[in-house]
Design brief:
Layout: E1 9-12, E2 15-18, E3 20-24, E4 27-36, E5 60-61, E6 71-72, E7 79-80, E8 87-93, E9 105-111, H1 126-132, E10 135-139, H2 144-148, H3 160-175, E11 181-191, H4 193-203, E12 213-217, H5 232-242, H6 250-258, H7 262-272, H8 292-296, H9 299-302, E13 307-312, H10 320-323, H11 329-336, H12 344-358, H13 368-397, E14 402-407, H14 428-431, H15 444-463, E15 485-489, E16 498-500, H16 504-518
Parallel strand pairs: 2-5, 9-10, 9-11, 11-12, 12-13, 13-14, 14-15
Antiparallel strand pairs: 1-2, 3-4, 4-8, 6-7, 8-10, 15-16
Length: 522
């Protein structure tokens, strides 16, 4: 800990915490890492909503990241993380609360992505906090089977990961004043599954007054990949059978799963992959009383506050390993099938329409080169762009402000092929200012774009308007259904980056034509 650590003891709703200082570019940020925000979800608390932490008597050492929530790693047979993982990390501009007269800072709470099965809140957010003069909080929440197992009844309603997120935001609201943060100016933002989570928090009737603004990067709650399309109780029973647990009652099933070791549960989850099943959020009747699409049409819910949202040029890149195996029209259709909710007997009709919509008419032989790129674009459109536009229009219908962006700059250090452009999640290095740390992301253009994006994001957190109070290079117009204006985020921002009708033809195909086709013959 650097000199001045005695000043880094802060009071939270659960006890005192000791932080450390992070220095960069002659600037300093206070970091409080790995703070528990709820009781460890162990033993009888597994598969139940989060409970308050009993607190601690000694000062909690919050100077290092804590382990992520237990999850399945990409390497075969390698699981990592731990169940005692419900932690937050807090980044505060240094000396922002050195005296009692300083005004309270806006608060930004980040929800990480990872398809609800992987990921962690262990992001370095000190640059965003300092340059934006905001307090940034990141969090862990339960993932996979630990976060989303559901028996469809009171034994295990599911959505524990979403309830963790909500509990973390509530903890922040109760504690942030002593860090110099304004509990009545909280913006929740997230990426991918975290972006969808933000929208689910936005739509939940339980969250009235919990936060004031929302930002979603590359994820929408109404996308089909967000909500479990099948009966979760059916797969809870399958999991139980794999692990030799009784299935003749939900409560005894959950009791049995609660005493299994994490490795045993992860083994059972690996068996469920034979059925292409993933534990996801569900309509539980409480946190989510209805489907996200139906809730999005409820003006009293979506009209509560302003929203900033967007997507990247090639969101389909997250499926690239699968897409690059596409060789035929049948492969193309199979890649898209999980993103479309339709009866099996109508799928062939929809398949023909999709092939027609995305056909490369300059390549009538359907070369794998072109069909893979068509699949990549189609996945991005159906999974991200079309749900984004539909959600923006629901918010406009509720007479609230919404700002839409399309991010097109591929960062130098992106892991996606260069021809692909900005892939899924590529905006994160600019939002958190990673490019300002030097290393592989050198270059004045990227530094400038990162600063501009952080200005837009933190302006929105301060005022609900990305153009105010700090100066921005281009005025970002509100989205409306007539002109459908959005801001293309790339280097050399100018008025030319204000565009209209994001991917209008493909969006109309998914949001207007396909729903009509689905009802043909009903």
């Amino acid at each position: 800990i650097l000199p001045g650590c005695s000043e880094l003891i802060r009071q939270t709703s659960t006890g005192l915490v000791l932080g450390r200082l992070e220095e960069w570019d002659n600037k300093t940020v206070e970091c409080y890492l790995g703070i528990p925000y709820a009781a460890p979800p162990l033993n009888s608390l597994r598969f139940h909503p989060p409970q308050p932490h009993p607190g601690w008597n000694e000062t909690f050492n919050a100077t290092t990241f804590e382990p992520m929530c237990i999850q399945e790693f990409a390497a075969p047979g390698q699981d990592f993380g731990q169940e005692d993982c419900l932690r937050v990390n807090i980044y505060v501009p240094y000396n922002s609360i050195s005296d009692g007269t300083t005004r309270l800072l806006p608060v930004m709470v980040f929800i990480h992505g990872g398809a609800f099965v992987i990921g962690s809140g262990n992001y370095k957010a000190h640059i965003l906090a300092e340059l934006g003069q905001v307090i940034v909080i990141t969090m862990n929440y339960r993932l996979g089977v630990f976060g989303f197992l559901s028996t469809g009844d009171s034994a295990a309603l599911g959505n524990f990961g979403l309830l963790d997120q909500r509990f973390a935001i509530s903890w922040v609201k109760a504690s942030i004043n002593s860090f110099g943060g304004n509990p009545n100016s909280i913006t929740v933002f997230g990426e991918s599954a975290g972006a969808a989570s933000v929208m689910l928090q936005y739509l939940s009737p339980l969250n009235t007054g919990l936060f004031q603004r929302a930002i979603s990067e590359g994820g929408a709650a109404i996308a089909t990949w967000t909500i479990q399309p099948e009966d979760p109780a059916f797969f809870a029973k399958k999991l139980a059978r794999f692990l030799h647990c009784p299935t003749n009652g939900s409560h005894i099933l959950v009791d049995c799963l609660q005493v299994k070791k994490p490795a045993e549960l992860m083994y059972g989850v690996s068996r469920l992959k034979e059925f292409n099943f993933t534990f996801l959020p569900t309509v539980d009747g409480l946190f989510l009383p209805d489907s996200p699409r139906k809730l999005s049409k409820n003006a009293s819910l979506v009209g509560r506050f302003s929203y900033l949202m967007g997507a990247n040029r090639n969101e389909g890149s997250f499926l690239w390993l699968q897409i690059k195996t596409v060789r035929s029209q049948a492969d193309f259709v199979n890649v898209l099938k999980p993103f479309i909710s339709v009866a099996e007997e109508k799928f062939s009709l929809l398949s023909e329409a999709m092939l027609w919509q995305y056909r490369n008419w300059n390549d009538l032989n359907y070369s794998s080169y072109h069909i893979q790129r068509q699949a990549l674009e189609a996945v991005g459109d159906v999974g991200f762009i079309a749900p984004l536009v539909a959600t923006a229009e629901f918010i406009v219908d509720a007479r609230r402000d919404v700002y839409v962006y399309h991010f097109t700059r591929r960062p130098i250090a992106s892991i996606t092929p260069e021809w692909m452009g900005a892939g899924h999640g590529d905006e994160l290095v600019f939002v958190f200012g990673v490019s300002l740390l030097g290393g592989p992301l050198q270059g004045d253009e990227e530094h400038i774009l990162s600063q501009q994006i952080m200005s837009y994001w933190t302006n929105f957190a301060k005022s609900g308007n990305p153009n105010f109070p700090n100066k921005v290079p281009v005025i970002w117009p509100k989205y409306n259904k007539r002109s459908q204006q959005y801001l293309q985020l790339d280097i050399n921002l100018s008025s030319k980056n204000v565009r209209k009708k994001l991917k209008a033809e493909h969006v109309a195909f998914w949001n207007q034509y396909l729903p009509v086709l689905q009802t043909t013959g009903d």
